[in-house]
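Quick question, first post here. What does this chain look like in 3D?
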Amino acid sequence: IAYPTTESTSSADGQRFVNTFAGKGEKGTFIIGSNVFKGADQILSAWTNVPKAVKSLEHFPTDVSWDGGSKYSVFGLIKYAQLDGGCSQKSYATQFVFDSPGVYDGHLIMYHDWLVSD
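> Answer (accepted):
Ran it through. Tokens below.
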């Protein structure tokens, strides 16, 4: 299954992110670094408008936290891999599941990547 990555600005892709990863997000708060997004609308906005914030996920997981929606889960949206020093990159939607809610700085119990072909 391929999920949309942060480069997408399609609202349908963003809504699919909210529905699939964020437990619909009605009461959720999604935090990337100093950026805080509350509720489905703001989470969707983060998906479509803040790719630069998502770059902070290279410091994951301490820059990201999730409260609400699907419990015990935090969602890393993307990972970049430079291939052979070139500009090619692979994008991933990543679900990290932790054993407690809050700021995710440990206790990772599961993660899953979905490769999105370029």
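Strands lie at 29-32, 35-38, 64-67, 73-76, 91-98, 102-103, 108-116.
The longest strand covers residues 108-116.
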